[in-house]
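## retry 2 of 3
previous attempt timed out at serialization; input unchanged, resubmitting
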Amino acid sequence: MGIRAGALALLTAFMISGCAARAPDPEPNLFAEYTRSTNVEHDRYATGGSSGDRRAFFASRYRAEELASRLFLTFECGESLEGDPFDTSCDLDDAVREAVREAGGDEDAPTARVIIVKHADESLALLTLYVADGTLIDSTGETHDGLDDFVDDNDLLSHDDVIMAPRDITAVPGEGRLVTIYGHAPPTWQWWALGGIAVVMLLSGAGFLRRQLRS
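## retry succeeded, writing output
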């Protein structure tokens, strides 16, 4: 392998490692933490009481897979099923309504879903997102093509936050794998800088070796 080809391979390895860094290790079980926590910001279940009371509340109404489905599948804002304690109300500002309308959704009763967020300070929250014709819309009205695009570009979360969300986050009502990843990609410059430094070091070292061999 030539020197420049080796440098390119090394830079590529750095970029791949940057993508792999999207998943925390070890991976926390945010769903289990959610069912135990008595202090979830923007929670859609008014369970009250202790952690044990909360778990008993869920156990009396759902099996684990049923609760996960209710939590992560999409719902229509404001439309509740009789006897279902899940709160479907949505705080829709003008930016969200406009984004939903432009994406082809119903701005008065958009399709929504929640994801679990664990902040760097260990606090938990539910974050409401909206889906319209394959477009993901966040609470600021910004639109995203999917989960990767949301993680790359959102202004709501940091790289220190961890989220649990459907891999196919724009699917309605949603099915398939849940993933636990960082809520925001690290700044791009970090990976390019690291890769650039490595390439410079590699090329400099190769140049030094050539000079030594010639002398």
